[in-house]
Design brief:
CATH class of the largest domain in chain B: Mainly Alpha
Helix content of chain A: 55-70%
Strand content of chain B: under 5%
Largest sheet of chain B: none
CATH architecture of the largest domain in chain B: Orthogonal Bundle
Strand content of chain A: 5-15%
Helix content of chain B: 55-70%
CATH superfamily of the largest domain in chain B: RNA polymerase sigma factor, region 2, helix turn helix motif
Structural class of chain B: mainly alpha
Oligomer: heterodimer
Number of strands of chain A: 4
Distance between the termini of chain A: 101 Å
Number of helices of chain A: 10
Radius of gyration of chain B: 18 Å
Order of helices and strands of chain A: HHHHHHHHEHEEHE
CATH topology of the largest domain in chain B: Rna Polymerase Sigma Factor, Chain: A
Shape of chain A: elongated
Strand order of the largest sheet of chain A: 2-3-1-4
Distance between the termini of chain B: 30 Å
Largest interface: A-B, 45 and 67 residues
Chain lengths: 220, 197
């Protein structure tokens, strides 16, 4: 027997085949008694199964279900509201709905945020101001090309005396102090040798040397 | 047993239910509830539980009719909802001996008499069928019921049992062989016909 035909026989017996397949199976039944016997078995089985199974009345329990439906709204009624609740726009609309207390709270909160944002922005744009450069390390200021004067002051040299000396020769500190107490000076006027000589004779200076370049930052 | 509502009509009702139409719900309930009850009762083997789950299932149908995607028949979809409502304890049960005859003493079946064969089955064959159906696995037995009690198509049977169509074929084939051999032993070949396939 052909399995393709055998596979279709249950569905032929319960009448669920489409017309084309049904006609094809029917043509096979005409010429094969064995197929007819199978269909007969299925039909007897179908009748046997249907004879013994109890089922309730179609309307049994319907009233109870309908009463339950009355207790809660149908999804067709609550779905649009749920969809609206789910949208961000609807959330914002509800949040900003005219209610005095929430509006005051939102206003204060928004003001604080704006003020903080303004302060952050202001501070960020003032990075190159002179006021800020004063608090930076001098070593981070890019100096012009040498020569430079390397100088170490005697222990106990007063700050005022150091300042007076530097101003008198027109030098400014561009590096140091290093671990050995050396400072590096630069003169805009390029009179480095003269300035070095003037500094060397100062009683508060321990040593002086003219150098071409500043040492790497790690030696400072 | 009444002929089942055509699927196209059931789909129309389901669309109306999705819009909150109670009359459509009542019509679908009346059309499907006996079959849904039978489907649940076979899995739970308890009438009260089956009735409760049936009502719960139709409540879900009312609430989620709009979620029906139309990829299966309405009957398959409702059966799927019912199967989800059946507690785990009842699922994958072993074979039960009284799967065909669920009548209680003094109770008459509602099913209509379809053919003279039914009259014969009511006596000797019915007892033999009960005995032999009880020897099948739950899956094989349900497959036979879906095909010959619910008159499900091959596609619907596969959807409800959540198996490929090929598995439906093999389940039915194995069930038929076991059933025929058992019936031949119990009733004799004369009533069953040829047991060789």
């Amino acid at each position: 027997m052909d399995d393709k035909v055998m596979d279709q026989l249950p569905w032929y017996a319960n009448n669920t085949l489409d017309d084309e397949t049904r006609q094809w199976v029917a043509s096979q039944l005409d010429s094969h008694p064995a197929y007819r016997a199978q269909v007969s078995f299925y039909e007897r089985l179908r009748a046997g199964l249907r004879a013994g199974v109890w089922t309730p009345e179609p309307t049994a329990g319907l009233d109870a279900v309908l009463a339950r439906l009355d207790s809660r709204p149908h999804t067709a009624q609550i779905e649009p509201e749920r969809r609206e609740q789910a949208s961000v726009i609807a959330f914002l609309r509800r949040a900003l709905a005219w209610k005095p207390l929430p509006r005051l709270a939102y206003g204060i909160g928004l003001s604080v945020i704006l003020i903080q944002a303004g302060m952050i922005g202001l501070l960020a744009t003032r990075g190159n101001d002179a006021v800020f450069s004063e608090v930076r390390s001098r070593a981070q200021v890019a100096a012009a090309a040498g020569p430079f004067i390397k100088v170490s002051f005697r222990p106990g040299a007063a700050e005022a005396d150091v300042r007076f000396l530097l101003v008198s020769v027109g030098a400014s500190i561009v590096g140091g102090p290093s671990q050995l107490g050396d400072y590096y000076l630069y003169l805009e006027s390029k009179r480095t040798d003269w300035a070095a000589q003037q500094i060397r004779i100062s009683p508060i200076v321990e040593s002086v040397a003219v150098i071409a370049t500043l040492p790497p930052a790690k030696e400072e | 047993m009444r002929k089942r509502l055509p699927d196209t009509d059931a789909r129309t009702l389901l669309q109306q239910i999705a819009d909150g139409n109670r009359l459509a719900f009542s019509r679908l309930y009346e059309a499907l509830s006996p079959e849904i009850y039978a489907f649940i009762q076979r899995r739970t083997d308890n009438r009260e539980t089956a009735e409760d789950i049936k009502q719960e299932t139709f409540y879900v149908v009312w609430q989620s009719a709009g979620a029906f995607k139309g990829t299966s028949s309405v009957f398959s979809w409702v059966c799927g909802n019912a199967a989800n409502k059946i507690p785990l304890a009842y699922r994958n049960r072993g074979p039960r001996a009284d799967s065909v005859d669920d009548l209680e003493p003094g109770e008459e079946p509602v099913a209509e008499v379809d053919s003279p064969d039914t009259l014969l089955l009511k006596s000797q064959e019915k007892q033999g069928l009960n005995e032999c159906m009880g020897k099948l696995s739950f899956e094989q037995r349900e497959c036979l019921f879906l095909a010959f009690w619910h008159d499900c198509s091959e596609q619907e049977t596969a959807e409800i049992q959540q198996i490929p169509k090929g598995t439906v074929k093999s389940r039915l084939s194995q069930a038929r062989l076991k059933l025929k051999q058992c019936l031949a032993r119990v009733l004799g070949n004369g009533l069953v016909g040829d047991t060789k396939d």
